[in-house]
Design brief:
Largest sheet: 10 strands, antiparallel
Strand order of the largest sheet: 7-10-9-8-13-20-17-18-19-16
Number of strands: 57
Oligomer: single chain
Distance between the termini: 73 Å
Structural class: mainly beta
Helix content: 10-25%
Radius of gyration: 47 Å
Amino acid sequence: MNEAPIHVGHPDQNSATSVCGCCMGATLATLRPTENRPNLSAIAFRAGDHANFKASMLTGLASAAHPALANLRTREGDDFSIALIDAWAAVCDVLTFYQERLANEAYIGTATERLSIEELARLIGYRLHPGAAAETDLVILMEDPPGASPDVAELTVPAGTRVQSQPGPDEKPQVFETLDDLETKVAWNTLRPRLTRPVLPNNGDSTAWVEGTPTLQVGDAIVFVSRERSDEDFIGFDKNSTLWDFRYIVAVESEPQGQRTRITWDRALDSVATEGGKPTAGLKLYQLREHASLFGYNAPHPRVLSEKIRESFGFVGDDFPIIEPGEPIPEPSPSRIRGTPEHPGDWHFTLASGNRITLDAVYKSFVPQSWVVLSLRSGFEDVFRVEDTVADAESIYAISARATRLTLDKPHSILDFAEDYRRIAVYGGTTEVPLAETPQAKWVAGDKIELEQGGDDLPKGRKLIFRGHPACLKITAQVITLAADDGAVRGLTRGTIVTLLGQSEPQGENHSFRLRDQDGFIGTALALGEAFESIPAPDTAPEITVTATLKRVLATDATHSQLELEEPLGAAFDRTSLRIHANVARAAHGEGAAEILGGGDPSVPFQKFQIKQAPVTHRLAANETGVKSTLSVRIDGVEWDEVPDLYQRDAEARIYKTSLTDDSNTIIEFGDGISGARPPAGRDNILVNHSRGLGRAGNLRAGQLTLALDRPLGLKETDNPLPASGGADPETAADARLNAPAYTLTLGRLVSLTDYRDFALSFPGIAKAEARWVWVGETRRIAVTIAGDGGTEIASNSATFTNLLNAFRSLGDPLVGVDLLSYQPASFRLGLKVAVDTTYSSEAVLAATEARLRETFSFKTRGFGQLLSLSEVAAAAHQVEGLTAVDIDLLYRTTAPQTALIVHSRLVSQPGHLGPGGILLPAEILTLDEDPLDKLELMT
């Protein structure tokens, strides 16, 4: 026995060891201390466990307070008393386990059950986010219904028209439905920008476009004739007018489609009639298909004739040649020779009566009212209109042949060619070549776009989708300087191909061009417009897509219209590849569903029902939660309203509240007749309508929504040129722990700078957010940078972006400007060597090192504007078991600055800031590049 009594609840001090073992466990193990420091993920709240409780009860057996137990000396487990103590210890263990669990579930920071977190959040007015349905713009192509008149006036695509996605590998098909009725027309399927414009050749031009593919060839003669020379009915007509140009073709290029041909001639025009610097109407182009000479150009020179024959023709000034006695008197000579018998020259060529010429052969293409050009090798030329043609025989200049005699309209001008008769070239046989409209090469940008066709019946506020290749330019200046937003500068030389990223803006005498070179370097160049030449974009260029809202349509002429947009496009398109879709419907993830919940039972308070077709779609909205439910509940045909909770509601209010299970099933709960009305009695009188489907699975890629499940009259096919975005899964318990306390900081109102950040973080689809003050001129504004789930960029035309910005403006301070920016991804590259403990597999350590680096420097772990130091990289690598040393050889950014292939001691990451020219730039998140490491090898 112990010498001193044992007091219950107090360990015996200096107790002797019992030889029999009856005093084993003389120290109390309960109550166990349960102190908890702040910020623990779990609360320790157990007085003890099975072993502690059993030890304490065994200690109590030896207490002086229980003398009746003095004879119980055994402590063996097979004894009934000891077994009973063991059983009670197990009961206490279970009770304290659940007590600890209840204590943990009482705090939002340690609760593990979704129901606990949801109910705790409700205490501060916060509801776990139900998730959000993705949205996108759907292009709908229509066709005239069978039997309908061509281009039927209007066809309606009703709201709720379903379209299913084409799933990729390991994906499930997703159904989207249109949100509103859409009035469509076949003519609105695809609009094109104006591709050509009537531009007459002007002085200084050496090229022109003609219709079709005429029989023009290199070397052909052409003549441009202004109406002052050609149109006898024109008030300014003058047959002696010099407003014409004769040229030779040096190049012929036909378009692949054969619609027009581009011709180039030898010398720039210089005699086209102009008014105000532009060519006047009525300019015509003629092809001169025949190349002829005057009769006698090939006559034998008189010197090759005998003296007797020359004498028979006579010389200029002689009436008759010398006749010997007894010889017959010849007829008058048809032609004379210049000079004298001693010094004979060439034939005395004559142009009959000053307005007639005789050609060297019969030419059927020389017809009245056609044009003829006389040309000398010296460059002297003149144009004539043919008044009459006669096919006849000619015998003169010692030759005889069939010939064509032309009567021309300018009698005196012909004599100007008499001195060089043999060298006169006659071009005729004219055919008019219709001039075609000139293709427009300039890019399409800004807020005004002229169409190739009429479109003045498009309604205001119509959503349009522009899709095509980005505009490509070729630098024609010697050197262009491209300055990036971060200050980096790059020089581009003549002939370099660049991509134009937006409309050029005037900057004094120059223009500001936002460009990207072939290496991906983006910057701004100040230059004259003549420093660039628009060139067709290659077919391999990526397609860009932009949405816009129509402000109005203006008719520019009888067949063309001009679109005016609410905002500039924000991009520059290659004109020939641009397509504009005007049959555009907004579509959201989900499809309509209706079901009968059951019958109302007034005898049951807080009657509950579970919706079978889950999940209920919540669509993006510009409110404090970012979503709005599609659920509609009707009882006996009367619609009831959803409220956040039933607390202190009117007894007759037709209301209900909803909650979500862990499986995303929706529970509907009605009132008890005191806080909210009870459903009236009835059989299957509670009906619900909603859409089902939401979550990140709806964030589809562009071009996946192509299977129309519903086909209203005229619907041909569908497409989504832009990815679907905004889809978010229901909020997890882990996210709620962070978001619920943040909600208490804003309570639906945005006051402080951090309120904007916290509010953005609670918005569906937003993973990271940063807010900071930025001075724009003399005004201080709030710049909020956001990043989507998984590091996705949130496009400025997406529903998430638009709704969040609208929520900022409606819930925030109306006197403070706010700008929303999608973050700028930035990456760095790395090369290193490591030493590995010989007891470890080097291959496994290398793989683990790369995995550790990618995890440490991923989007999930990095923040906005967070710098990266060399020591951070080394510390991350040293966390790998088996790695003993690391030597970093390369650490640099993939984009400026710090792109030099060296080891930088620190890499910068820009926060949101104001860039050159007052451009607001988003914050960066610097992560490890996805491509393989530059180097990861063992030290030698």
